[in-house]
């Protein structure tokens, strides 16, 4: 049975400052219940693609000048980031962005601020987050500014979960983390996908780890998709091995 496509990006162009063409026609599909990876080197356009989807380009003087973006078949290009959260799409930004002066638990609860379904449901989700991130439960009364980089990545993902999303756009979850923590975070993403049904689109420079955990990958170079395929096929592809996996 074919999986339903949730997010569809169709041939988008993005221009910064009216002149700098950064995405030159990017297309991709994110199926429901999948982990889709957006791969490529520094500056390839991964973050720009995610921000185009969640409509976060305006503050950077960027705009989508061509193409279309739809979610569940509905055009979403003109929605605000908050409207998108209501539709079930949330972005976890690169660099994590915790509220440093709030506790870990207060940070998590900020993710639930637009919810209307009451304290019981919110508490249940907080417990779900603590089940997946026992470390956050241990540190729930600590000030977020004093937690480690790995813990802040967990807070950022946990806070996104608190909005009850359907699809999570995850920007560079491995950034700045030791290999063991990278494995741990990706392992949690995989469990959230398999056990709770969350759909992920993740941007990642670490091709090796991303292709072990994702189902499907798109490789971006200079604002274009140069290759895409099932993750296990990409891992065996000679070009991917040579240029992205550091082995030939
Ligand atoms: P990274 O891993 O560094 O985040 P990336 O693949 O996510 O890389 P982007 O951040 O999307 O790449 O950047 C793509 C290109 O767009 C880069 O050449 C970058 O310099 C340029 N760019 C990004 N933001 C802006 C901006 N606000 N104004 C002008 N150019 C920008």
Overview of this protein structure:
It comes from Aquicoccus porphyridii. InterPro entries: AAA+_ATPase (IPR003593), ABC_transporter-like_ATP-bd (IPR003439), BCAA_Transport_ATP-bd_LivF (IPR052156), P-loop_NTPase (IPR027417). The chain is an alpha/beta fold. It contains ten helices and ten strands. The strands form two sheets. The chain has a six-stranded mixed β-sheet with strand order 6-7-8-3-9-10, sandwiched between helices. The chain has a four-stranded antiparallel β-sheet with strand order 2-1-4-5, with helices on one face. Helix 7 (179-196) links the parallel strand 7 (167-171) and strand 8. Helix 3 runs parallel beside helix 6. The radius of gyration is 18 Å and the shape is globular. The N and C termini lie far apart (36 Å). The mean pLDDT is 93. The structure holds adenosine-5'-triphosphate. Adenosine-5'-triphosphate (ATP) binds next to strand 2 and helix 1.
